[in-house]
Specification:
The complex is a heterodimer. Chain A has a single domain (about 30-305), classed as MetI-like (MetI-like fold), CATH 1.10.3720.10. Helices cover about 75% and strands about 0% of the residues of chain A. Chain A has helices at about 1-5, 10-15, 15-35, 35-60, 90-125, 125-140, 145-155, 160-185, 190-195, 200-240, 250-260, 265-295, 295-305. In chain A, α4 (about 35-60) packs across α5 (about 90-125), α5 runs antiparallel to α10 (about 200-240) and α8 (about 160-185) packs antiparallel against α10. The longest helix of chain A has about 35 residues, at about 200-240. In chain B, the strands form two sheets. In chain B, strands 6-7-8-3-9-10-12-11 form an eight-stranded mixed β-sheet, with helices on both faces. A four-stranded antiparallel β-sheet of chain B has the order 2-1-4-5. Chain B has a single domain, classed as P-loop containing nucleotide triphosphate hydrolases (Rossmann fold), CATH 3.40.50. In chain B, β4 and β5 (about 75) form a beta hairpin. Chain B contains ten helices and twelve strands. Chain B is an alpha/beta fold. The chains are: A mainly alpha, B alpha/beta. Chains A and B meet through α9 and α10 of A and α2, α3 and α6 of B.
Chain lengths: ~300, ~325
């Protein structure tokens, strides 16, 4: 068998963890080379992450200090995105806002995925618990996300932590619903029955036989959660239920600009553009991952790789 | 006569469905002796698989429920065991092979990790020892290049190879009983024969009893020592395999044998299928469930349900008219 001695395909046949990681990074790189949209989306996200980490050092002005003399200036070489109604630099405030967006987005995604997946795995094996939790989940899902988040924040007070909590609640409910469905259908599969027939205990079946089979669903859903959370945070800040006004967030910069649309269109425009591009990039990456994880499509890629 | 390994007595399993209660297995009793190959035959939906799953206690509850009976395995009633004790028996004392080799293996795990799993769980082997043993097992079931195979994923193997892996897995902890539930139905005939030969070889070598569940009378003829014929949840005839072919005593068995071609029958003679259809299990006819399709049925068959009774040594039949039933008119 040539395939076994061929070192290029070795990782595919014998994947220890590090090699598997290298393999998936390599696969991502190869996919990105073929798929221009994916490449662009990943680039956008990397830039976003870079800004989120280094925004305070990149900012050329004190983004919290007001400067009424230079208020409502249009874009120029001094102020790339112009200034707002208090004379603060919109470019600086926008890139600093990236931090909050990514922080909230990533936190909500991680929290909701970890809790949602764990709960779904556990309740899929306890009928009574399942019916109770699912009714609660139904209750949460009956509310529009923003409305529920608004209600929660008015209850626990606006702060970054509370925004994350409020958005995580609804995102988790959605996760539980999705993963539970997948687990229930997998539980009926022959290989899970076969695993039970060799005496594998339930927790081990869940971790070893069920979880790896739903990873693709979880990853894809996570990208949509990320996009949704970034958007939701901006909406909350726009509505004034998010972070305080002096902390820059895409949402509240847009809200500020709203009152000056005719004289300072740029104030809302640039953070809006950032928001749109980021969300679009995340969603496109999600789409792309879904295509690549689709077993039918993957089968086709495999055959071409082997030929 | 060898000792009795598995003794199923008055086992009943029913499913509560929206359409009513289905008695999938209705008060059946049979014995599997140590080292023998026992076949359970019958058409689809007659309760063969439910019998196997009941023995393994893998009936999904609800809707299914084992309502009565005992399943004595090596002197222990499996139905009375705690879940944990039952889990220790599954895979170690009783192995099971399922119908679909294509979906019996987890697509995201390597063959090695799946083969090593029962070894780690039941024999408490270390990963290294389990992997070595897994390699031996793959060799045992006749797959070449075992070391490389172990690192592959199920989709890289053919159906026959996957079923060989399933056999290796089922035999990994040297079980006393191997249950093969339609294990070769999804494979083509040549592979079917190879897999069955393999199962016979490995079970014979280790003295394991083999319980074959099938609708294929050819398999029964070639591999089984004894056979039980099942119809609508009940056993209708239990006998030595050779006896059953020579002298079937139940009208249903006769019907089955008449509907398969035989090399010794007249050339061009038409096959006679069994008239009618399988009855609705939620609404069985009164008396013997086979009466609407039975050419020998007498008045009594429509009111009373015959019990399985021993008519000669090693031969049990559930039919009032068994004396007049014969394969050839």
């Amino acid at each position: 068998m040539a395939a076994i001695t061929d070192p290029a395909t070795e990782w595919e046949l014998a994947p220890p963890m590090s090699a598997r990681l290298r393999g998936s990074l390599g696969a991502t790189y190869r996919a990105a080379r073929r798929d221009k949209v994916l490449a662009a989306s990943i680039t956008v996200l990397l830039i976003g992450l870079f800004l989120a980490f280094f925004a305070p050092t990149l900012a050329r002005t004190d983004y919290e200090r007001t400067d009424p003399v230079n208020r409502l200036l249009g874009p120029s070489t001094d102020h790339w995105f112009g200034t707002d109604n208090w004379g603060r630099d919109v470019f600086d405030r926008t890139i600093v806002g990236t931090r909050l967006s990514f922080l909230v987005g990533v936190s909500v995604t991680v929290v909701s995925t970890v809790i949602g997946v764990s709960v779904a795995l556990v309740i899929s094996y306890f009928r009574l618990l399942d019916s109770i939790i699912m009714r609660v989940v139904d209750g949460f899902l009956a509310f529009p996300t923003i409305l529920l988040a608004l209600a929660l924040i008015s209850l626990i007070g606006p702060s970054v932590g509370n925004i994350i909590i409020a958005l995580s609640v609804t995102a988790t409910a959605g996760k539980i619903r999705l993963v539970r469905g997948a687990v229930l259908s997998l539980r009926e599969s022959t290989y899970v029955e076969a695993a039970r027939a060799v005496g594998v205990p339930v927790p081990r079946i869940l971790m070893l036989h069920v979880l790896p089979n739903i990873v693709s669903i979880i990853i894809v859903q996570a990208t949509f959660t990320l996009a949704g959370a970034i958007l939701a945070e901006a909406s909350l800040s726009f509505l004034g239920a998010g972070v305080p006004e002096y902390v820059p967030s895409w949402g509240n910069i847009i809200a500020t600009g709203q009152g000056y649309m005719q004289v300072g269109f740029h104030i809302s425009f640039f953070p809006g553009l950032f928001l749109t591009i980021t969300v679009l990039a995340v969603v496109l990456i999600g789409d792309s991952i879904r295509d690549h994880l689709d077993p039918k499509l993957r089968g086709r890629l495999k055959t071409t790789a082997h030929s | 006569m060898a000792e009795v390994l598995l003794k199923v007595k008055n086992l009943s399993t029913l499913f509560r469905t929206e359409g009513g209660v289905v008695k999938a297995v209705d008060n059946i009793s049979f014995e599997v002796r140590a080292g023998e190959t026992f076949a359970l035959v019958g058409e689809s939906g007659c309760g063969k698989s439910v019998t196997a799953l009941s023995i393994m206690r893998l009936i999904p509850t609800p809707p299914g429920e084992i309502t009565s009976g005992t399943v004595e395995f090596d002197g222990i009633d499996l139905l009375k065991l705690r879940n944990r004790e039952m889990r220790a028996i599954r895979g170690s004392k009783i192995g099971m092979i399922f119908q679909e080799p294509m979906s019996s293996l987890n697509p995201v795990l390597t063959i090695q990790s799946q083969l090593a799993e029962p070894l780690k769980i039941h024999m408490k082997l270390s990963s290294g020892a389990a992997n070595d043993r897994a390699e031996e097992l793959v060799n045992m079931v006749g797959i070449p290049d075992a070391r490389a195979r172990l690192q592959q994923y199920p989709h890289e193997l053919s159906g026959g190879q996957r079923q060989r892996i399933m056999i290796a897995m089922a035999m990994s902890c040297a079980p006393r009983l191997l249950i093969a539930d339609e294990a070769t139905t999804a494979l083509d005939v040549t592979i079917q024969a190879q897999i069955l030969d393999l199962m016979q070889d490995v079970t014979e070598q280790s003295g394991t009893s083999l319980l074959i569940i099938t609708h294929n009378l050819g398999i029964v003829a070639r591999y089984a020592d004894r056979v039980a014929v099942m119809y609508a949840g009940k056993l209708r005839e239990v006998s030595d395999a050779s006896d059953m072919y020579a002298e079937p005593q139940h009208p249903y068995t006769v019907g089955l044998l008449r509907s398969v071609p035989r090399l010794d029958s007249d050339k061009g003679a038409p096959l006679t299928p069994i008239a009618g259809e399988i009855p609705d299990l939620t609404d069985l006819p009164d008396g013997c469930a086979f009466n609407p399709r039975c050419p020998w049925a007498v008045e009594r068959c429509f009111t009373d349900d015959p019990e399985l009774e021993e008519i000669s040594t090693g031969k049990q039949v559930a039919c009032f008219e068994h004396a007049s039933v014969a394969l050839h008119d």
